[in-house]
Write a sequence for this structure.
């Protein structure tokens, strides 16, 4: 599949934003972080800003962005529609939670419940995003049960890195959260490794014979190409990445999205406040690059069955 940069920005930015919203709500509700209005303002502005930028970026991939509102009506059958409904619904409790935190400096009582509701809706939204891809039987690499869980764990991990940076920027100490962040990054790496192993070892079950219905008569092959030049389907669905190139990019993902951020998260345990703060900020920057590459590869490695009609032997 052709990697659309607007969708890459959407899934990385909004995922981190939703993850940060979850941690802001949970940690404030249980009194782990103070109800300081500037912490709340910075954290919620960053979280909702990332979410909004991501959601707006997703509309750039549409042929007619002005019709995006119509997707909300198909929530009974479409994961894309469910994602849109959940995304908009999240703004309501998140906004009320922000009012309590920023203007009243309260994150307890009703505001704690509103924050936890926003966190729950954030997780639901990320799950729906993952299911948009996992529900597509036409793309074997996406139609995997691990896909929505990778989206959720990556959102929580990137959100935790942002939360860890905020904790240190505001001069707070929370060694246990450094460990939580490192564990989430490790879990995300484990799930991603399992995902790569699955799509590499899984047998390609669909052939050109299945696509044409002629397989029962014997081996089927394309006699003549259907087009003299590339069309829309070939450009969008037929994008391929060389195996050695994909392996190299996977190595970059392991290093930049997981190993380096994980190590930097542990460095935040250092007694030096300056070192810990710099490590937390650097972890966010490095992970941002790494997760973007991971998401690009997620699209580039996907093979659509429609390419069976254009000569691809199996999918």
């Amino acid at each position: 599949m052709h990697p659309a940069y607007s969708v890459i920005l959407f899934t990385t930015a909004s995922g981190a934003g939703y993850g940060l919203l979850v941690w802001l709500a949970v940690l404030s509700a249980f009194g782990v972080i103070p109800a300081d209005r500037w912490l709340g303002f910075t954290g919620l502005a960053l979280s909702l800003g990332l979410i909004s930028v991501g959601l707006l970026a997703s509309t750039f991939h549409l042929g007619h962005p002005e019709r995006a509102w119509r997707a909300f009506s198909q929530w009974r059958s479409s994961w894309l529609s469910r994602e849109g409904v959940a995304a908009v619904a999240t703004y309501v409790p998140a906004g009320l939670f922000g009012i309590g935190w920023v203007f009243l400096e309260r994150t307890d009582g009703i505001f704690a419940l509103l924050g936890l509701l926003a966190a729950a809706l954030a997780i639901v939204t990320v799950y729906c995003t993952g299911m948009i891809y996992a529900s597509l039987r036409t793309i074997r690499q996406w139609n995997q049960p691990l896909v929505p869980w990778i989206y959720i764990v990556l959102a929580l991990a990137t959100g935790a890195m942002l939360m860890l940076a905020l904790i240190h920027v505001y001069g707070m100490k929370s060694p246990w959260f450094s460990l939580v962040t490192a564990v989430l990054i490790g879990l995300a790496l484990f799930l991603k490794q399992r995902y790569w192993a699955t799509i590499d070892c899984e047998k390609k079950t669909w052939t050109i014979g299945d696509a044409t219905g002629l397989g029962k008569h014997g081996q089927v092959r394309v006699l003549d190409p259907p087009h003299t030049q590339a069309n829309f389907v070939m450009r969008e669905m037929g994008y391929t990445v060389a195996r050695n190139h994909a392996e190299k990019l996977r190595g970059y993902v392991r290093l930049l999205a997981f190993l380096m951020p994980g190590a930097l998260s542990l460095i935040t345990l250092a007694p030096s406040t300056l070192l810990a703060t710099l490590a937390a900020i650097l972890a966010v920057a490095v992970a941002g690059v790494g997760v973007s590459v991971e998401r690009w590869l997620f699209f580039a490695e996907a093979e659509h069955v429609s390419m069976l009609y254009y000569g691809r032997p199996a999918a």
Summary: The two ends are 12 Å apart (CA to CA).
